[in-house]
């Protein structure tokens, strides 16, 4: 017996699972102004990725600690 799903039947879609990709994209567009207002020079990259890059000016801190996390379907921290 195989654990793989059949390629002949219809598959489960994100929408079937309760995920609305369009609503997520709309939310990103709506929060862009707030994100832009809180942007700092140390932030590397833009909005929308699964993670974040933040340049730490190590010369300003003795023992810096950064904590970053993302949460979503399948995320493991």
> What's the total count of β strands?
2
Major sheet summary line? 2 strands, antiparallel
Strand order of the largest sheet: 1-2
Strand content: 5-15%
Rg estimate, integer Å: 19 Å
Count of runs of 4 or more consecutive helical residues = 1
> What shape does the CA trace take?
elongated
**Which runs of at least 5 residues are low in confidence (pLDDT < 50)?**
none
Distance between the termini: 33 Å
Backbone structural class = mainly alpha
Please, could you describe this protein's structure?
By secondary structure, the protein is mostly helical. It has a domain at 21-60. The protein is built from 1 helix and 2 strands. The chain has one helix spanning 21-37; strands at residues 43-44, 53-54. Strands 1-2 form a two-stranded antiparallel sheet. The model has no long low-confidence stretch (mean pLDDT 78).
Keywords:
77 residues
What topology emerges from the helices and strands here?
Layout: H1 21-37, E1 43-44, E2 53-54
Antiparallel strand pairs: 1-2
Task: Please summarize what this structure is.
This protein has 77 residues and is mainly α.
